[in-house]
């Protein structure tokens, strides 16, 4: 039990006295005390808002079957040493369940939730607020933005929905409500404010751009609704910052504008294709701002451009600082990617650029990432170090798919099979083959030609992230 010291008690009395004095007399004079004249003056409640919004928030239960081999001897070090994986016992099946929330956005049963709520599920069940249950079909699942779109068959019945709001109109300090199914206890409503906007350092998905709130969000709230005081969807609750697993007042929601782009693609009957920037950059620090002659740190310093990319074609140059897209400020590469990702392929964006202290606005044509060169996906085998890998030529489309941020040129490892030479040597998906026996590798054809020639010794160079790793095999 925490005891209150006399100092704390005296300070509490001081604060209460000060507040009471402020009520009795303000700089404008005495506050007139009046008897409340109506029920509305006595009661302030979110109940009407909740009554309207809560029926559109659903519970989602997913199940998947995991196959594993079980043997009572596998825990014995003796048997594991001499028999290894060959003595793992008979296969058994285990059912893994998870729970989350979702939001009905169309009356015919279209529902949005988080991708991680239904990922790899064999069976998905949606439970409405009135406790009716429906099997759900996955219409779209996008791991990059952690959003999934489900559909349930309502047999023609119209369901309650939440209207998608304009997440760009939300301001820090706005009141919001979070509705979901925390810990599986049932539908729960919590209140708070918007604590911050454009949070990009969360690392939850590839497109990091979140609304931060202090409304209590816990496991099971994922996929639920964050709503504004006009009853519109501000975002989909996606993650929390926590050291214990419970809410500490730092929750993150995917903005409604991103939800809208995913839903529009699904309703259009096609796969969502996001515009390709063809560029990479870094945040402008105070030191960079000083060197560039900027009044303050702002924007994204472009340090790499693809010659065929839309920014290069629009006239953006290495060393330029991009500060806004269609008037929306960007302060880091994540927010730049987000602003571009919201726009439709085939349109045009206005990019604000600072070059040598002068600001200019450039029209940028929005195109999808091209399949150039063809990826030529190939599985390698034989007596050579890359046996067991699946490799491909890097092109902009593939780079977007796998989240590769480097220069779109070279040969990338996509898969590594278990129990193969490549796995034993430590190769990983995402590795880029640089050289084999001193020969530069720029295409899959180069790699196939080199490894087809038997060698007593293999000298390999592979790029992993920002490092180039070297390895010698045999000889």
TrEMBL record:
Residues 1-32 form the signal peptide. This is Serine protease Do. It holds the Pfam family PDZ_2. InterPro entries: PDZ, PDZ_sf, Pept_S1C_Do, Peptidase_S1_PA, Peptidase_S1C. NCBIfam families: degP_htrA_DO. PANTHER family: SERINE PROTEASE FAMILY S1C HTRA-RELATED, SERINE PROTEASE HTRA2, MITOCHONDRIAL. The lineage of its organism: Bacteria, Pseudomonadati, Pseudomonadota, Alphaproteobacteria, Rhodospirillales. It comes from the Bacteria. Residues 292-357, 391-442 form the PDZ domain. One of its GO terms (molecular function) is serine-type endopeptidase activity. Belongs to the peptidase S1C family. Substrate binds at residues 116, 146, 220-222. The active site is at residues 116, 146, 222. One of its GO terms (biological process) is proteolysis. It comes from Nitrospirillum amazonense. Keywords: Hydrolase, Protease, Repeat, Serine protease, Signal.
């Amino acid at each position: 039990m925490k005891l209150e010291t006399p100092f704390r008690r005296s300070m509490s009395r001081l604060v209460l006295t000060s507040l009471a004095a402020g009520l009795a007399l303000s700089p404008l004079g005495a506050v007139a005390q009046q008897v409340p004249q109506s029920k509305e003056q006595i009661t302030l409640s979110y109940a009407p808002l909740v009554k309207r919004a809560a029926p559109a928030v659903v519970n989602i239960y997913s199940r998947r079957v995991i196959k594993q081999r079980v043997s009572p001897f596998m825990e014995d070090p003796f048997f594991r040493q001499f028999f290894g994986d060959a003595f793992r016992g008979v296969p058994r099946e285990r059912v893994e369940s998870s729970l989350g929330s979702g939001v009905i956005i169309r009356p015919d049963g279209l529902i949005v939730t988080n991708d991680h709520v239904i990922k790899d599920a064999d069976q998905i069940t949606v439970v409405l607020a009135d406790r009716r249950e429906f099997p759900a079909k996955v219409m779209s699942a996008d791991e990059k933005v952690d959003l999934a779109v489900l559909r349930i068959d309502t047999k023609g019945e119209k369901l309650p929905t939440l209207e998608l709001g304009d997440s760009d109109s939300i301001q820090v300090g706005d009141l919001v409500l979070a509705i979901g199914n925390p810990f599986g206890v049932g539908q729960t409503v919590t209140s708070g404010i918007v604590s911050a906007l454009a949070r990009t350092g969360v690392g939850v998905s590839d497109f990091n751009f979140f609304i931060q709130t202090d409304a209590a969000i816990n496991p099971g709230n994922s996929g639920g609704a964050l709503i504004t005081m006009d009853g519109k969807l501000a975002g989909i609750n996606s993650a929390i910052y926590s050291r214990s697993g419970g809410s500490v007042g730092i929750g993150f929601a995917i903005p409604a504008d991103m939800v809208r782009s995913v839903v529009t693609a699904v309703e259009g009957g096609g796969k969502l294709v996001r515009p390709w920037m063809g560029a990479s950059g870094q945040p402008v620090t105070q030191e960079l701002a000083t060197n560039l002659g900027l009044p303050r740190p702002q924007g994204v310093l472009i340090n790499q451009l693809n010659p065929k990319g839309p920014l290069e074609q629009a006239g953006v140059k290495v060393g330029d600082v991009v500060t806004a897209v269609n008037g929306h400020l960007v302060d880091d590469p994540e927010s730049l990617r987000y602003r571009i990702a919201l726009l439709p392929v085939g349109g045009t964006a206005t990019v604000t650029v600072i070059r040598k202290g002068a600001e200019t606005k450039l029209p940028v044509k929005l195109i999808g990432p091209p399949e150039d060169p063809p990826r030529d996906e190939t599985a390698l085998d034989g007596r050579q170090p890359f046996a067991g890998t699946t490799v491909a030529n890097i092109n902009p489309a593939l780079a977007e798919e796998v989240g590769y941020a480097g220069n779109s040129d070279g040969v990338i490892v996509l898969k590594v099979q278990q129990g193969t030479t490549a796995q034993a040597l430590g190769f990983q998906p995402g590795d880029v083959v640089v050289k084999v026996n001193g020969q530069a590798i720029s295409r899959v054809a180069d790699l196939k030609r080199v490894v087809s020639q038997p060698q007593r010794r293999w000298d390999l160079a592979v790029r992993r992230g920002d490092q180039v790793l070297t390895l010698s095999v045999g000889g």
